[in-house]
Amino acid sequence: GQSLEQPSEVTAVEGAIVQINCTYQTSGFYGLSWYQQHDGGAPTFLSYNALDGLEETGRFSSFLSRSDSYGYLLLQELQMKDSASYFCAVRGGGATNKLIFGTGTLLAVQP
Amino acid sequence: NAGVTQTPKFRVLKTGQSMTLLCAQDMNHEYMYWYRQDPGMGLRLIHYSVGEGTTAKGEVPDGYNVSRLKKQNFLLGLESAAPSQTSVYFCASSYMGEAFFGQGTRLTVV
């Protein structure tokens, strides 16, 4: 099966940097992705890592270590609008290509 | 450019009633998914499809059925609704590592 673990809540101040970690277990692995969801809205895609290393997209970066079954999302120059839930998701399951999500991390950005 | 469209957006059902949720995507994606989201539980995969005419069970498939007769559409059916199926349902389609979500269906079963 597949499972993912991430912290339930993180608090940070405006302008700071925050890192949200994700560890996963899966039989077969294609990649790790990150999504943002504001309260009452739909998840939106942020980043995807299929290979080890760092992917940078503006203020957001994502890292993957396949040997450690670990990844993280790094948010820089935090803004109030970054307050949301963040989900890691793993694409795996052999040939089935399931997309399984973690339970999410609620990020609260304080002034 | 609609992306992923879900209908309906809201619905109230009585226990035992049936309904079908429709998901349509215009991006020609092979993979489509149905999730349910409950408070504090994240997104749980109900069923998914890797192409037209194929479906497979996810993490929580009991009480639901799906069909993918056309590549662009993925239907989720509840044959006999139960209060435990009160949730927000999201459909998604994906290409490689990026999934696109519909706006969700808020379903209440009373």
Task: Please summarize what this structure is.
The complex is a heterodimer of chains A (111) and B (110). With 111 residues, chain A is mainly beta.
Describe the structure.
The complex is a heterodimer of chains A (about 110) and B (about 110). Chain A is mainly beta and about 110 residues long. Chain A has no helices and eleven strands. In chain A, a hairpin with a 2-residue loop joins strand 6 and strand 7. The model of chain A has no long low-confidence stretch (mean pLDDT about 95). By secondary structure, chain B is an all-beta fold. In chain B, a hairpin with a 5-residue loop joins strand 4 and strand 5. The radius of gyration of chain B is 13 Å and the shape is globular. The chains are: A mainly beta (about 110), B mainly beta (about 110). The interface between A and B is medium-sized, with 24 and 26 residues.
The count of strands of chain A amounts to: 11
Low-confidence stretches of chain A: none
Order of helices and strands of chain A: EEEEEEEEEEE
Termini Cα gap of chain A: 41 Å
Shape of chain B: globular
Question: Roughly what percent helix of chain A?
Answer: under 10%
Helical percentage of chain B: under 10%
Low-confidence stretches of chain B: none
Rg on CA atoms of chain B, Å: 13 Å
Quaternary structure classification: heterodimer
Q: What integer value in Å does the Rg of chain A equal?
A: 14 Å
SSE string of chain B, helix = H, strand = E? EEEEEEEEEEE
Basic shape of chain A: globular
Strand pairing plus helix content of chain B: what structural class? Answer: mainly beta
- Quickly give the structural class of chain A: mainly beta
Average predicted local confidence, pLDDT of chain A: 93
Largest sheet of chain A: 6 strands, mixed
How far from one another are the termini of chain B?
36 Å
Strand percent estimate of chain B: over 45%
Number of helices of chain A: 0
Mean pLDDT rating of chain B: 95
